[in-house]
Amino acid sequence: MESEFALVQTLNEQTITLPPALMREVAKAQETWHSKENTRRLWEADATLWTGRDEGAWLGWLDIVGKELREAGALQEFGRQLRAENFTDVLLLGMGGSSLGPEVLATSLGSAPGYPKWHMLDSTDPQQVGRFERGIDAARTLYIVSSKSGTTLEPNVLMDYFLAKAPASAGNAATCQFVAITDPGSQLQKTAEAKGFRRVFHGVPNIGGRYSVLSHFGMVPLAAIGHDPRAFLEAAGAMAQACGPNLPPAQNPGVALGLAIGVLAAAGCNKLTIFASPSIGAFGLWAEQLLAESTGKNGKGVIPVAGEPLSEPSAYGEDRLFVYLRDPARADPAQDRLIDALARGGHPVVRITVGSPILLAQEFFRFEIATAVAGAVLGINPFDQPDVEASKVAARKITQAFEKTGALPVEPPVFEASGITLYTDTRNAESLRKLGANATLGSWLKALFATLEGGDYFALLAYVDATEARLQALQGLRAALRDRKRVATCLQFGPRFLHSTGQAYKGGPNSGVFLQITARPAPDLAIPERKASFGVIEAAQARGDFRILAERGRRVLHAHIDHDVDAGLAAIGKAARLALA
Predict the structure, then answer these.
(1) Which of these, 331, 353, 354, 349, lies nearest to 339 by C-alpha position?
(2) Alpha-carbon gap, residue 181 to 150, rounded angstroms
(3) What is the 8-class DSSP label of residue 300?
(4) Is residue 60 a part of any domain in this protein?
């Protein structure tokens, strides 16, 4: 472990409160972990701690802090250059963990005075792409194309789109507005060099995207909006030292959290529900993708729940572990009251005090250690994502078919009325009809909700422009279902979640019930040198997602809105509430 950084004097405090029976199980796990010297094995990249395959090749994040600190000065100078050149906006084009980390940093810390405003686009929804395009000054925007492999579809098509747009306002110097963050030798690096990008920043090949926030994938965007990577990395380094190989598990903040997560998940408390103070609320999105994509496989795993509206303690089942990240200077009293009530009621609760938003640096490292430890407890490889690849392959086949024929495959609906069409596979259609699904939208939703049982969770998968109004509409439906059915609920916008929580939904425990929502793109947007538009790609991604969910035996229903999206969401919400009455 590198140790050339200054030690931050104060670590974010963590308190784990569990019911007695679960506390005893965690204590046993701590004893076993200690006796087998598992923390040392983790730091020594011993793959037999997990499944004995290639896990040891993906632990570059353990010592990234010291390595990244050596480049902190150059990164800070890069940010100063952007300010000096009067860039007004930074638009990151990415997908998955390598983009969600920077999004947390930007929304929690904001841009420093005089530095560009932050935007992050990780969608193929044409309305969302168009909205972001209209929200920036194209001639004064720095575009960051972020892709570890350099072959990920979404960053590449977004890059092609904005490259074609930039010359109209910036002339021949347009490519000087583009930088790339990618692994050495990737196709993106070759493209960036061929097109004359301003800079290519390299990732670290033995760090996966979801563990990459403390590498260039997070630190370049941090510098671009005017923050000193050195201070951030030094804060992370203090947690890295505290999570080192020599401390016993109970005193090691990352190991203690990971053992609690893993033991509770194995015992059925596998809905890890994250609450965070509003000032650091975005952290839940990053932790959600880290935990889900890392642990949700082989029929096992943690189902993280982020952004769920607050309710009364009676609304929560016995399958929850609550993690509360609290910013004491900006705490939400309603969150405080709920967490206190949940702990008094015997629910397992982890409290983490985050002294300031910059100390989220410590939480990135703590949760990375915890996720690796939980993976060891569950007996899975926390560094692969086999079911993410399955969805990509399915979407690619559908897109390639469109490129040849100019049309998407025709799918027979099970219901159609008032601009809303429902689809599902034969197995689910038969099951839902037996539960009363017939000639009304509400009957199909009621039948879908009837499949929910104790220990299940419900997920809304929305392939629409994620405006605030639509977020609130779907949050309302989510809360109503949670309160009525007493199950954990998730809300995801596609295609973002395909690269994160989609792994757990397809490869984790078969306890999810899914309502997929899509809409007709209006207007659609063309992509340079492709027959497939953004709308076609989004539709292919949704269909590929549905196909893999159905193949894995998941309970899933697809609702397509063929008119005004907001009116369609309102109609679905109204029908759902009546179905829950």
Answers:
(1) 349
(2) 9
(3) B
(4) no
Q: 139 and 188 in one domain?
A: yes
Who's near 317: CB < 8 A, 6+ residues apart? Answer: 271, 454, 455, 486, 487, 488
301 in a structural domain: yes
Partners of 415 in the beta sheet?
422
List the CATH number of the domain containing 142. Answer: 3.40.50.10490
CA-based nearest residue to 220, from 193, 241, 243, 202: 202
Three-state DSSP state, 273: strand
Hey, is 562 helix, strand or coil? coil
Distances (CA, A) of 531 to 69, 162, 188, 528: 44, 17, 21, 8
Domain count within the chain:
3
Amino acid (1-letter code) at residue 2: E
For residue 320, give every residue at least 6 positions away whose Cβ sits within 8 Å of its Cβ, in sequence order, or none: 269, 271, 272, 273, 305, 347, 348, 488
pLDDT, tens only, 305-334: 999 999 999 999 999 999 999 999 999 999
Residues 341, 425: one domain? Answer: no
Kindly report whether the peptide bond that precedes residue 348 is cis, defined as omega within 30 degrees of 0: no
Residue 3 within a domain: no
256 belongs to a structural domain: yes
CA-based diameter of the chain, in Å? 68
Strand blocks (E) in 183-318: 199-202, 271-276, 303-306
Q: Is the pTM of this model over 0.70?
A: yes
Mean pLDDT taken over the chain: 95
CA–CA distance from 433 to each of 65, 424, 428, 459, 577 (Å)? 55, 11, 8, 21, 20
What are 31-76's pLDDT values in tens digits? 999 999 999 999 999 999 999 999 999 999 999 999 999 999 999 9
Same domain, 406 and 461: yes
Domain with 150 in it: 65-233
- Side-chain half-sphere CA neighbours of 361 within 13 A: 28
